[in-house]
């Protein structure tokens, strides 16, 4: 596409978003990546999937490969409208435990998953210790970030340990997906510790920008996971394209590329999808090696 064509397409897209954002929670039915979903009209998932067919499919393929070797049990932290859960179970049999704290998206989550007995929903905000601190939901284009503030639109909180105790069907957890807009670096190690004997594969967004907005250190996640026995890391870009494999002791330095500002200009925020595998998880390592065969370099 020419430069003018790209500009026109971008302008058209932004105008469309402005219109849709005026009526953000109008329900619409969309076919997205092989499944039917009820979505808020403002949700960006159909757009992302149309522009990049690989978007979100790294998680689905990872789940499919893991399901080939043992029963698939998935914890979906920040389940949003249930798109990940529905797509995973469209590709492989198993069970998914969804946890979502935004009341606005819970309506759509239930509409998408309640018809499937393999999917269970917890209406709560996952926190490291289950503590109830005031939070406010900040919504942008189909995703939610919780910040300090009034607690009127947030759900009760739950800790990973309580979540496990309350849902014994997920005692042998195989896969964790976390998408909490910056809080993943704090929550994922807590979940991994709560299910330490199961050694689940950990799939989450590594987004230094949003992590710092949450007043957290993005690089702190790696020594935390190393201390729990996690060693291998597969990396995809934010469109689902494989970038390379590495290890937890190298990725902090490699991930600093996400902070680079091309040409000294304000950059388009970048993040990675990462899958982290325990050093004793042979099948998990086999799965990420098949999905991401190359090595991740520096720079």
TrEMBL record:
InterPro entries in the cross-refs: FkbM_mtfrase, SAM-dependent_MTases_sf
SUPFAM superfamilies named among the record's database cross-references: S-adenosyl-L-methionine-dependent methyltransferases
Top-rank taxon: Bacteria
This protein's name: Methyltransferase, FkbM family
Native species: Nocardioides humi
Taxonomic classification: Bacteria, Bacillati, Actinomycetota, Actinomycetes, Propionibacteriales
């Amino acid at each position: 596409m020419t430069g003018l064509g790209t500009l026109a397409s971008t302008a058209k897209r932004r105008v469309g978003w402005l219109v849709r954002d005026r009526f953000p929670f109008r329900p619409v039915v969309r076919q997205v990546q092989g499944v039917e979903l009820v979505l808020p009209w403002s949700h960006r998932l159909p757009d992302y999937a149309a522009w990049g067919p690989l978007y979100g499919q790294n998680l689905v393929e990872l789940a499919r490969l893991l399901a080939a070797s043992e029963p698939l049990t998935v914890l979906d932290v920040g389940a949003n409208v249930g798109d990940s859960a529905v797509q995973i179970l469209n590709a492989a049999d198993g069970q998914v435990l969804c946890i979502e704290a935004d009341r606005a998206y819970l309506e759509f989550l239930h509409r998408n998953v309640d018809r499937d007995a393999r999917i269970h929903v917890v209406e709560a905000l996952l926190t490291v210790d289950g503590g109830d601190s005031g939070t406010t939901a900040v919504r942008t284009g189909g995703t939610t970030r919780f910040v300090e503030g009034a607690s009127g639109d947030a759900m009760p909180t739950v800790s990973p340990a309580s979540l496990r105790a309350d849902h014994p069907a997920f005692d042998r957890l195989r896969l964790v997906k976390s998408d909490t807009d910056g809080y993943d670096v704090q929550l994922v190690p807590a979940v991994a510790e709560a299910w330490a004997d199961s050694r689940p594969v950990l799939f989450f967004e590594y987004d230094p920008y949003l992590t710092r907005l949450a007043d957290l250190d993005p690089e702190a996640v790696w020594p935390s996971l190393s201390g729990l026995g996690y060693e291998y890391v597969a990396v995809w870009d934010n469109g689902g394209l494989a970038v390379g494999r590495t290890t937890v002791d190298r990725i902090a330095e490699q991930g600093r590329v996400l902070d680079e500002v091309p040409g000294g200009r304000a950059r388009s925020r970048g993040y990675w999808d990462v899958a982290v595998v325990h050093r004793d998880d042979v099948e998990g390592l086999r799965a990420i090696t098949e999905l991401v065969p190359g090595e991740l370099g520096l720079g």
